[in-house]
Amino acid sequence: MSGLFLYFCFMAVEELHALFLEHQIISTDTRKITKNCIFFALKGESFNGNKFAKEALKAGASFAVIDEEEFKFSERTILVANVLEMLQNLAAYHRNYCKAQIIALTGSNGKTTTKELINSVLSKKYKTIATHGNLNNHIGVPLTLLSIKKDTEIAIVEMGANHKKEIEFLCKIAQPDFGYITNFGKAHLEGFGSEEGVIQGKSELYEYLLANNKAIFLNADDSIQLEKLGAYINKFGFSTDNHRYSLIEFLSANPFVCLNFEKETINSQLIGSYNFTNCAAAVLIGKYFNVALKHIKEGIENYKPKNNRSQLITKNGHEIILDAYNANPTSMKAALENFESIKGKNKIAFLGDMFELGKTAHEEHQTIANIIDTLNIYTVYFLGENFNKIETKHEKFASFQDLVTHLESNPIKDKSIMLIKGSRGMALERILDIL
Q: CA-based angle 341:342:343, to the nearest 5?
């Protein structure tokens, strides 16, 4: 490939892939340039990555992929028709170049935790990679696929969506061999339009797998999934005719989930009975891939949550369940019901707004307040614009600073068990700094 061709013509995906094999690090942020990486100049509503191509090369990138001709200035600047589309096409090409089996996960709740659990189990026997953090959208999925190495045997790819047809699009890129939907819940209602819209959107994963004669891991205890897919159930990787969820016994969640499988007790480090299904999926997928039971047990027991996901923290004598990574009506209800079941007298819940609920926002926030009234949780602090509009007997604050001011005047003195739960944009982990 001559420099002249690189300079004047759009590069084909096959040619870019040949360069990628020599420079297998992709960067989309000039603040995180790694030496010899390939910089993709993505665009957003408020930025144009093309303008940073020269900066990326000076910082150590080997090549910069751009889609505006005015920013090509050397043979290290690769012009393509559309940078984002090229990133996605490159990922699909690389996915087929490598021979790894792809397990795709989606769902309203528990995607990231389940993905981490599955990876922890399968990595006991196979060379695996998994989605980093929650890079699960139209950019994150391609980046995950491009992290697959020649010797990778299984890739666990998380797929997120807030509109219909997004999962369908991601499947075309990732071309999964297996799929699992954690659940259908009231998440991203603003984009999906309704709970039925959520079901339709998430089910695009199963529809892809069925159309391509691939395998589905089905939660046989999920009535919605059984109703939608019952006619095909005998085709699935595990279902009522194979490794049924009912074979896994839920022992307890006080506070950590404990389960039993084939006479082996597995003690997780995950809080909440709602994490039982996530653990069960990892156990049964491990079983499907012939991971020894002792290694399945190790994989589950060694996984410790992080990044504000159901973390158990002790601070100033308080036992705190920090679940502030995200929230929707389904996960909020589950977290509260689990919180009530934990033994202890002085329970305090800090609940932040749930985002992306559209026209249903007020109704869903009021419903959570009504649920609180049926539970034995006597002290609740509601935080955010939506919760500030509800009717409740509990304290509510429109802003975080209002909460800070209140706690400064009314500090929590008794040792307590606390739940901190809210959407990512609420950043409720800040509460730890003011306790």
A: 115
DSSP 316-348: TTEEEEEE-S---HHHHHHHHHHHHHS--S-EE
DSSP string, 111-142: HHHHHHHHHHHHTTTS-EEE--TT--STTHHH
Measured CA to CA, the distance from residue 119 to residue 6 in angstroms comes to: 39
DSSP 11: P
Instruction: For residue 285, give the amino acid letter.
Output: I
* Nearby residues of 345 by Cβ (< 8 Å), 6 or more positions away: none
What's the CA angle centered on 395, arms 389 and 398, to 5 degrees?
45
Q: Which residues pair with 48 in a beta bridge?
A: 43
Question: In residues, how long is the chain?
Answer: 435
Interval 37-95: pLDDT, tens:
999 999 988 889 999 999 999 999 999 999 999 999 899 999 999 999 999 999 999 99
**122 near 115, Cβ under 8 Å?**
no
What is the rounded end-to-end Cα distance, in angstroms, of the chain? 61
- Please answer whether residues 128 and 135 qualify as being in contact, where contact means their C-beta atoms are separated by less than 8 angstroms: no
Question: What one-character-per-residue DSSP string does 36-58 give?
Answer: T-EEE--B-SS-BGGGGHHHHHH
DSSP character string of 265-306: EEEEEEESGGGHHHHHHHHHHHHHTT--HHHHHHHHHH----
Q: Which domains are present in the chain?
A: 3-81 (3.40.1390.10), 98-302 (3.40.1190.10), 311-433 (3.90.190.20)
CB 18 within 8 A of CB 38: no
The model's pTM = 0.86
Coil, strand or helix at 86: helix
DSSP characters over 361-420: HHHHHHHHHHHHTTSS--EEEEESTTGGGS--SSEEESSHHHHHHHHHHS---S--EEEE
